[in-house]
Design brief:
With 217 residues, the chain is mainly α. Helix content is 58%, strand content 0%. The longest helix has 25 residues. It binds adenosine-5'-diphosphate (ADP) and nickel (II) ion. The site of nickel (II) ion has 5 residues, from helix 2. The site of adenosine-5'-diphosphate has 15 residues, from helix 7. It comes from Pontibacter oryzae.
C-alpha cells in the first residue's frame, strides 16, 4: 500500500476514535499537531512518514483516560500499524515516540531519542500553548471538575510524575507547571520561533486575568 493511503486510513481511524472528545484531546488537536509536525519537519532532515504516523497516533490511548496506564497508547498504535506491511523497526520507532511524548511534570526532563520524536513533541507542545493552549487547558480543567483559580492557593510545582498526574490544583496552576515552561524546552528552531509569540500571548492573558480578578480592568 502507498504511504499516502496508509496516512489517509490512519487519519480516518483516529478521527473516528477522537471526534467529540471533550477535554482538548479531540480530533482537531490531532489535526493541528499533524500540521505543526509537517511544518516543523520541512526544516529538518527527518523521516516524514514516521513523523506523520506518530503525530496522528500520539493520543489514541492517552494514559490520562486509561487510569494512568501508559502502555495503552503504544499498544493501540502497534495493533493498528501491524495491519500494514511496514518494516519492523518503523513500528517500534513510532511506538517509542508515543511512549516518550507525554509531559511528566516541571521537575522531569524529556527523553526524546530521535529527531522524528523531537519534531512530534514540539508539534504537540505548540498546541499546548498560545490561544489554543489556553482554551484546551480550561477545557481539560472543566472535564476534571477543577476550579479555574483560587487566590488562596499558591502555584505548586509537583516534582514527580505521580504527583503531577494526580494534582487537583485549580487550572491556573497548569500555566506554571507546564505551559510557561514549554518555550524553553522546544527542540527545533522552527518550533522555538513559533513558541515565542504564543508564550507572550499567554503572559498577556495571565496579566489581564489577574487584573480583571482584582477589578482593575
Ligand atoms: P502531553 O501530551 O504533553 O502529555 P497532555 O496530554 O498531558 O500533554 O496535556 C495536553 C493538554 O491538556 C495540556 O497542554 C493542557 O491544555 C491540558 N491538560 C493536561 N493536564 C492538565 C491539567 N492538570 N490541568 C489543566 N489542563 C491540563
Ligand atoms: Ni497531544
Amino acid at each position: 500500500m502507498q504511504k499516502e493511503d496508509i496516512l489517509a486510513e490512519t487519519a480516518a481511524y483516529v478521527q473516528q476514535l477522537l471526534t467529540g472528545e471533550g477535554s482538548g484531546h479531540d480530533w482537531w488537536h490531532i489535526f493541528r499537531v499533524w500540521n505543526n509536525a509537517k511544518n516543523i519537519a520541512a526544516g529538518e532532515q527527518a523521516n516524514l512518514f514516521v513523523v506523520e504516523l506518530a503525530a496522528l497516533l500520539h493520543d489514541i490511548g492517552d494514559h490520562k483516560f486509561h487510569n494512568g496506564d501508559e502502555s495503552v497508547g503504544p499498544r493501540m498504535a502497534r495493533e493498528w500499524l501491524q495491519k500494514y506491511d511496514l518494516e519492523g523497526d518503523l513500528i517500534e520507532h513510532i511506538c517509542q515516540i508515543i511512549q516518550d511524548l507525554s509531559y511528566k511534570g516541571a521537575g522531569t526532563s524529556s527523553s526524546m531519542h530521535t529527531l522524528e520524536g523531537r519534531i512530534v513533541q514540539d508539534a504537540d507542545r505548540l498546541d499546548a500553548i498560545g490561544a489554543i493552549g489556553i482554551a484546551r487547558t480550561f477545557a481539560y480543567g472543566g472535564h476534571k471538575n477543577r476550579e479555574i483559580y483560587d487566590p488562596a492557593i499558591a502555584p505548586v510545582m509537583h516534582d514527580s510524575f505521580e504527583a503531577y498526574k494526580n494534582s487537583t490544583a485549580p487550572t491556573i496552576n497548569h500555566f506554571y507547571e507546564k505551559l510557561l515552561l514549554l518555550k524553553d524546552r522546544m527542540h527545533t528552531e522552527t518550533a522555538r520561533q513559533l513558541a515565542q509569540q504564543r508564550h507572550a500571548y499567554m503572559e498577556a492573558f495571565l496579566e489581564q486575568f489577574y487584573a480583571e480578578w482584582n477589578g482593575n480592568r
